[in-house]
Task: inverse folding
């Protein structure tokens, strides 16, 4: 009992020690100040990075907008990691940890872990070359294996691809071996138009060609006036004409829909019929009646 009473008295004396609470309060305030300062530094740094790239838009040495978006997000991530790492060291030092000993120990442990983290190293190296070689950038439409979508973010370790249905696919950079980039060069939109066999094919071609010359003034996505290639195929119910148009990257889906709409409306104005499937049905009764008529004759 005497030992317990002495222990309780010692703990009570420690809790009532003014220096203890003073040091605790100072440490807590330092930690809160470090966290607030870190948040401010990250926000200010992000703004500064954005302003720097904004000023580059007026420079004759400006890089592409795709690459700018990629570098901005990458630099924001690096700044965040760096500030949080320094803030963690400052907090540990405030808590009276020997930061130098921790860093020395972390270096030895990191060397040991590095031999088992080859995939992580490969991801970082691959991510560096993806950015350095500008294989793709944020906002590009790409296909990597079975994944296809818009690049949301490129990091040194992973790449985030958003599919058209909204899913976010996170891929380690080391697994990206083959990439198809749809956003680098202009796309080509093509549309097949069917004209009835009974229709006037030369007239239909003239009407479509006149229309195609008007479309670039209406749709700025078209790089050049669309071109009518001619008869593409002889279908089961009509003659198929093909129209192609060079458009801005990834605008071919939109322009294909526009071409179908405009061509249909113009053909209707000139009374040119687009064929539709027809079916002729015969009944056995009709055949029997015809046979009786033939026999009576």
Result:
């Amino acid at each position: 009992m005497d030992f317990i009473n002495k222990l309780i008295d010692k703990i009570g004396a420690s809790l009532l020690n003014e220096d203890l609470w003073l040091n605790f309060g100072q440490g807590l305030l330092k930690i809160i100040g470090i966290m607030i300062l870190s948040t401010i530094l990250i926000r200010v740094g992000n703004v500064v990075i954005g302003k720097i790239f904004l000023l580059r838009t007026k420079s004759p040495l400006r890089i592409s907008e795709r690459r700018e978006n990629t570098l901005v997000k990458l630099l924001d991530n690096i700044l965040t990691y760096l500030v949080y790492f320094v803030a963690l060291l400052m907090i540990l030092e405030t808590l009276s940890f020997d930061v130098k000993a921790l860093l020395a120990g972390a270096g030895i442990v990191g060397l040991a872990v590095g031999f088992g983290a080859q995939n992580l190293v490969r991801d970082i190296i691959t991510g560096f070359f993806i950015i350095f070689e500008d294989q793709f950038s944020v906002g590009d439409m790409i296909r990597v294996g079975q994944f296809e979508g818009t690049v949301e973010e490129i990091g040194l370790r992973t790449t985030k691809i958003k599919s058209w249905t909204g899913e976010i696919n996170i891929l380690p950079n080391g697994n990206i071996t083959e990439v198809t980039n749809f956003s680098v060069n202009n796309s080509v939109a093509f549309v097949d138009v069917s004209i009835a066999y009974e229709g006037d094919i030369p007239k239909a071609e003239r009407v479509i060609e006149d229309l195609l010359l008007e479309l670039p003034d209406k749709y700025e996505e078209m790089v050049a006036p669309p071109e009518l290639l001619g008869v593409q195929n002889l279908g089961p119910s009509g003659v198929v004409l093909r129209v192609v148009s060079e458009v801005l990257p990834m605008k071919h889906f939109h322009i294909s829909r526009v071409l179908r709409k405009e061509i249909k409306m113009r053909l209707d104005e000139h009374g040119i019929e687009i064929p539709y499937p027809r079916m002729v049905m015969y009944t056995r009764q009709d055949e029997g009646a015809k046979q009786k008529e033939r026999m009576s004759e």
The chain has three domains: 2-116, 126-181, 187-269. The chain has a mean pLDDT of 77.
